[in-house]
Amino acid sequence: MNDDTIVALSSGNLPSGVAVIRISGSACDSISKQMLGGLSEARVAHLKSVKHPSTQEELDRGIVIAFRAPASFTGEHCLELQLHGGRAVVEAVLNAICEFNGVRLAEAGEFSRRAFENGKLDLTEIEGIADLVASETEAQRKQALAQSRGDSRETYEGWRKRLIHMRALIEAELDFSEEEDIPQEISKEGFAQVKALKEEIENHLNDNRAGEIIRDGFKIALMGKPNAGKSSLLNALAKRDVAIVTNEAGTTRDVIDVHLDIDGYAVIVSDTAGLRISDDIVEAEGIKRAQLKGQEADLVIWLKEINDDQPYPDNGFDNVIHVTSKDDALSMQDGLSISVANENGLDSLISEIKKQIRNKLQNLDGVLISRLRYRESLVECGNHLSFVIDNQVSDIELKAETLRHASDCIGRITGKIDVEDLLDVIFSEFCVGK
Predict the structure, then answer these.
(1) Cβ distance 272 to 221 under 8 Å?
(2) Same structural domain for residues 165 and 80?
(3) Residue 222 phi/psi, 5° resolution?
(4) What is the pLDDT of residues 56-78, one digit of tens each?
(5) Residue 136: helix, strand or coil by DSSP?
(6) 256-262 vs 265-271, strand pairing mode
(7) Which of 29, 201, 400, 431 is deepest in the core (most CB within 10 A)?
(8) How many domains does one find in the chain?
């Protein structure tokens, strides 16, 4: 356990109506006695004068709650001070607390890191908390809340324990094959369980990346020739002037992203450079980036002016909808027709976008994979299980060792094993005081 006691403002920007100061560590008892006059009962709100430890000058008056280890967020002794949210008040209290020996200001994510190190939360719960703090849409909130309360942990830890049990069954035949109470070929039961688990993991992976899309956003790329109306459509969807709109072809030379909330889902709409052959170095780079954005997108909206008689190109993107732009009269066209100038057809386009999102995110029962590192570990685990199932591999010892690697893959998701190199990256996502 870290000997330092850490303190930080946990409630966000000042000034505010209320400021919450969080303290965690062994110095909490000394701080409570010298600054608060002691607290008679843990987990009970006390109205206290907060005094300077040396001069006993009153710094503020507010609600104070003590939490005793291990029944706290970090697993250590903790104090939470709910004070007036003035900058001078918070600065005075933080400075006074830091006068105690072994007390320092917390780093970003340090409270959550201590909760992980003290076994209060696993990495999936920690990352769920980070996503909950950062959530901007209803879908993000729901997914992050489920993960922060341990839904992902229960699934992945359950799989890891089953893998350990399977390995034990297989190794039992190796270690005790001559014992009368160990039946011959007991490992067959273990292999049968491996096949069942592999199928579960494959079904879990076959999710259209729904969890990652909810967390990171449904990506839409606006593509087409120069002056097809892409930037105008971006501004219309954003309901503000984000991109420059002129009659000059090639105005957009880089990707412009706008973040929207559509039906409770995070959506990222990207305006891209018009696609054509260009000798201009900057425009050519913009066109290259446009093609890449289209390849990465969950949906490509390909715009074509109404007076463009050329057919829509076979661009090779996975999911494309064709839209005729600048159709002020909304004449009958194949696919969707819009006019940003007259605000015609936009509702139909948005309805189609909602339909595309629903199709991508349908059947969202159970735990979803919210991060790429989870997916990579699960794919690696599945590869190990395929090796174990392979009838061409007859070495039981090798299969037992492969099962250990498979369980380690799951363990890296929850933080059970071999995650030191990940911790700094994970906790850097947090704000100070969380």
Answers:
(1) yes
(2) no
(3) -90, 120
(4) 999 999 999 999 999 999 999 99
(5) coil
(6) antiparallel
(7) 400
(8) 3
The whole model's pTM is what? 0.83
User: 70: cis peptide before it, omega within 30°?
Assistant: yes
Q: What's the average model confidence in pLDDT over 90-95? A: 97
List all residues 6 or more positions away from 287 whose beta carbon is below 8 Å from its beta carbon.
273, 274, 275, 276, 278
State residue 277's pLDDT score.
77
Whether residues 237 and 343 fall in one domain:
yes
Pair type for strands 265-271 and 58-67: unpaired
What is the per-residue DSSP string for 77-98? -EEEEEEEE-HHHHHHHHHHHT
* Domain housing 100: 5-106
- Give the β-pairing of 299-305 and 218-224: parallel
Dist. CA 151–CA 130, nearest whole Å: 15
Tokens representing residue 241 in the block: 């002037």
CB of 43 within 8 A of CB of 25? no
Asked whether residue 288 falls in the same domain as residue 323, the answer is: yes
Provide the terminal-to-terminal Cα distance of the chain, rounded to the nearest Å: 18
Nearest to 26, CA basis, from 114, 90, 141, 92: 114
Burial of 394 per CB tally in 10 Å (0-12, 13-18, 19+): exposed
Contact of 108 with 130, CB cutoff 8 Å: no
Give the 3-state secondary structure of residue 303: strand
